[in-house]
Specification:
The protein has about 300 residues and is an alpha+beta fold. The protein has a domain of about 130 residues: Beta Complex (Ferric Hydroxamate Uptake Protein, Chain A, domain 1).
């Protein structure tokens, strides 16, 4: 082969070699590009999956929070209803007590029921009781009454003990209007006829225990009060003391111009008012309605 032929062959070989290298390079680039694309897709897919998972997690947490909030709201609503029902019951029991300033010892049951129901309430429930001040005042006033009752009982026991130690002093007292009952024609006001017993006895002979220093008036006042007999006292004026103008709705002058009430002690009419005569053990006192005092 000539020199020129060899040169051409070398050139052709070189060109073929360069083409092969370029082809390989192109294939490598294509392969790299493909690999990069695949890798990029994988990353993108992974990111997408991660984002999707995060979104799902967030959605789950949001729903859980919403469910929890709804449950809590439902629970709170249920608790409020329960609280209101319990408080309403207590308010009703307190209202049954009435005016706390008018409680008596008979108010015990109503107060105890309200107090027991109130004590069962929770701290929050007690805060919304509307009339708890009524319960507080009622309790305070009731306790005062109980205390006073105990003190009264103690004093009574003490008095009874003292009385049993010392000799008991007593008198008898009676009230009658027999003179008028035997002659009703003297009665100036027919409407008062209903107050006059047919036998003329307004109060039969009654025993009265007295303390030193008590008077005929004290005895009359006590028995009238205990037997529901009305009486009217007046100032005796120049005679000093108390004058009795009416007993059992029968007043002076109802049986005539000289009619009225006189009192006797042991069968004698004292010459001073009933508030001045001091009782003595065994005295027999009689209040007599006279139709004519000038003949007494």
């Amino acid at each position: 082969m000539s020199e020129r032929g060899r040169v051409m062959e070398d050139e052709l070989l070189k060109k073929a070699k360069r083409r092969k290298i370029r082809t390989i390079a192109v294939l490598v680039i294509v392969a790299l590009a493909a690999t990069s694309a695949v890798f990029g897709l994988s990353i993108k897919s992974a990111r997408a999956e991660k984002a999707k998972a995060a979104a799902a997690q967030e959605s789950t947490e949001t729903q859980a929070a919403a469910d929890s909030g709804a449950a809590e709201k439902k629970s709170t609503s249920s608790k409020e209803k329960k609280d209101k029902a319990a408080v309403k019951k207590v308010d009703k029991l307190i209202a049954a007590i009435g005016d706390p300033d008018k409680v008596t010892l008979d108010s015990k049951d109503a107060i105890q029921k309200a107090k027991k129901a109130y004590d069962k309430l929770s701290k929050d429930q007690k805060e919304i009781v509307e009339n708890k001040e009524v319960l507080t005042a009622a309790l305070e006033n009731y306790r005062k009454l109980v205390k006073e009752k105990k003190a009264e009982a103690a004093e009574k026991n003490s008095s009874s003990s003292s009385a049993s130690t010392a000799a008991a002093k007593s008198v008898t007292i009676s009230i009658e209007c027999k003179d008028l009952a035997n002659d009703m024609s003297r009665l100036k006001e027919p409407a008062k006829k209903k107050y006059i017993p047919s036998n003329g006895i307004i109060l039969p002979v009654t025993k009265y225990q007295f303390k030193s220093g008590e008077t005929v008036y004290d005895a009359l006042k006590s028995v009238c009060r205990s037997h529901g007999i009305a009486y009217i006292k007046k100032d005796a004026g120049a005679y000093d003391g108390v004058y009795i103008s009416s007993i059992g709705h029968l007043a002076e002058f109802d049986g005539g111009k000289n009619s009225g009430w006189l009192y006797y002690v042991n069968g004698v009419t004292p010459n001073y008012t009933c508030s001045k005569y001091k009782l003595k053990n065994g005295d027999v006192i009689k209040w007599h309605y006279t139709v004519n005092y000038t003949k007494e």
